[in-house]
Inverse folding.
């Protein structure tokens, strides 16, 4: 059964590529600025957060070690771009099957390709944004070029991570349309649960609740999003290797999410044509 499923995925390779290209072409269709929006959106977010957090709230970014970089915009972008990839993938996945209901009803092929193509188009945008960020960091004197292979490894790990989530959300949203509303609430909480707009140093190691000492710092770092953001910053902002334990932790999460996502997808796949 596993062999036949793998054969189906291989046979659907051309279809996946074509669907990904369709997603890329349609994203900024009839838009005057076109692909420039993929750069303007994160830049506008950086401007807003820089004003709020750097000027109003006076949050200072940590000095890169050993890079010596001390720039809030660079600090923010190193965490914001991976977050945008995660957030965009989750939102796109929920509409991947519903938006292609006509194709699903007409002919059979692995429906996972819709999720892969939706996330694949976002991956292309993410790589372009990372390329621009690398250019900005170089202009700031941060020699990020030797660390690009580490960044690409992190991108690969994150892609498996978001694919697992995408498979799960895409099929659940077909059967339970409340999923998209729950995810929008969860995304707001997730954004502030990781050190994207603030340094991890502001999180206390211990919190006292009802007279009990809670190891808040340890619990906080169990969030895989925290490890993901910090690993990107290690490579691009600090110019150092992310901790090996963090990489292993992220790989473990990616494998678990992929297994769960595919298992749930295949279990609910048989009635997709009737439900979309």
């Amino acid at each position: 059964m596993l062999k036949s499923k793998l054969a189906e995925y291989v046979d659907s390779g051309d279809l996946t590529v074509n669907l990904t290209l369709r997603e890329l072409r349609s994203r900024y269709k009839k838009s005057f600025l076109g692909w420039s929006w993929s750069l303007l959106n994160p830049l506008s977010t950086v401007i807003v957060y820089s004003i709020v957090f750097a000027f109003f709230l006076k949050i200072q970014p940590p000095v890169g070690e050993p890079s010596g970089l001390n720039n809030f915009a660079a600090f923010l972008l190193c965490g914001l771009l991976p977050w945008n990839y995660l957030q965009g993938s989750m939102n796109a996945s929920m509409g991947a099957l519903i938006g292609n209901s006509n194709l699903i009803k007409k002919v059979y092929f692995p429906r996972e390709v819709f999720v892969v193509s939706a996330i694949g188009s976002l991956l292309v945008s993410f790589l372009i944004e990372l390329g621009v960020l690398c250019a900005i960091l170089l202009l700031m004197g941060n020699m990020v070029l030797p660390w690009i292979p580490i960044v690409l490894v992190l991108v690969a790990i994150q892609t498996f991570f978001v694919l697992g989530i995408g498979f799960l959300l895409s099929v659940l949203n077909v059967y339970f349309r409340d999923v998209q509303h729950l995810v929008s609430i969860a995304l707001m909480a997730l954004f502030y649960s990781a050190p994207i707009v603030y340094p991890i140093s502001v999180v206390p190691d211990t919190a006292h609740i009802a007279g009990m000492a809670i190891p808040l710092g340890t619990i906080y770092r169990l969030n895989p999003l925290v490890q993901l953001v910090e690993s990107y910053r290690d490579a691009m902002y600090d110019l150092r290797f992310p901790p090996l334990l963090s990489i292993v932790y992220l790989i473990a999460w990616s494998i678990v999410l992929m297994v769960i996502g595919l298992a749930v997808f295949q279990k609910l796949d048989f009635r997709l044509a009737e439900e979309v």
Summary: The mean pLDDT is 86. The CA atoms of residues 48 and 54 lie 10 Å apart. Residues 112-139 form the longest helix (28 residues).
